[in-house]
Amino acid sequence: xxxxVDPVKLMKQEVGKAxxxxxxxxxxxxxGTGSTTAYTIQFLGDRLKSGELKDIVGIPTSFxxxxxxxxxxxxxxxxxxxxxxxxxxxxxDEVDPQKNLIKGGGAAxxxxxxxxxxxxxxIVVVDSSKIVDRLGSSFAVPVEVxxxxxxxxxxAIEKLGGKPELRMGVKKAGPVITxxxxxxxxxxxxxxxxxxxxxxxxxxxxGVLENGIFVGVTDLVLIGEVQDGKPVVKEM
Length: 236
Ligand SMILES: O=C[C@H](O)[C@H](O)[C@H](O)COP(=O)(O)O
Description:
Elements: H1 7-21, E1 28-31, H2 35-50, E2 57-60, H3 63-71, E3 85-90, E4 94-95, E5 101-102, H4 109-118, E6 119-127, E7 141-145, H5 150-159, E8 163-166, E9 183-188, H6 195-203, E10 208-211, E11 213-214, E12 220-227, E13 230-235
Parallel strand pairs: 1-2, 1-3, 3-6, 6-12
Antiparallel strand pairs: 4-5, 5-11, 7-9, 7-10, 8-9, 12-13
Helix pairs in contact: 1-2
Bound molecules: ribose-5-phosphate.
């Protein structure tokens, strides 16, 4: 491995590129959020620039993805202008053996869920640290909440057995505010036995906009690993 280079960064780069390589000319592409898909967006821009890839349009899942797409020369569109998405590529915070996910570490899970669920093919890009036996093992479930409902939503979440914590900003005083102007509550559960049921129960609380549990939607997971000092990509 290249001396001094962070192995997690190398895995993210490799897997981000592997996903970008799967995008074909003439397609509508959902552009995910986070540090891994940032590489995918960069490599898509490289392929467009070299002429190897032509006529793609992106649908960003966040302000971050929009800014990166503009930076790397990827034309953008909106869900009002298209009737389908061919492929979406997005990161995840946890992936279980059934390819269910926890997402929202970057507070973008609401727009991500809209875009990723609409795609004909949904590819998840992660480094190997994100693979878990059971969702919730190490990551709390992000829940986007309309600000005036924060207190009742947190009480309702406690009744479901979760431990909610309002996500606070870094280099910003006060709570994290999402791209939609809402807040995020991170909810730790002792054990998530039935992700599909928990996803529905959380979304059923008045004031919850969306939570970060994604069930039964992932087609392919590309996993970046380091083997014999070199980054490799595995499929799940
Ligand atoms: O809200 C953010 C997203 O769900 C990200 O895709 C997720 O947090 C993974 O991000 P990263 O690739 O930076 O680990």
